[in-house]
Amino acid sequence: MSLYHLYSSGISMLPQMQHKAIHLSFALALTYFLYPAVAGKKDKIPWYDFVFIGLSIVIGAYITLDYFNIVYRLGDPKTMDIILGGQ
Asked: Where are the domains of the chain?
């Protein structure tokens, strides 16, 4: 995460929406790794936390990779936009 932020602040900045999606995906994945859903079991990460980590990465990747299409169809979302937006 820190390498991405160093790259984006010094070399090449992505559009704001893509930058925020990548940052949020990193932050959510780290949160699920550091704070498992079951209190008191910090040495083992439950399987469903890995599901949430995967969903966080998928949603961030979708916004980052499909950015221009999302912007151009503003106000007319596809089914995938609604599904991933509801997560």
From this structure: 14-85
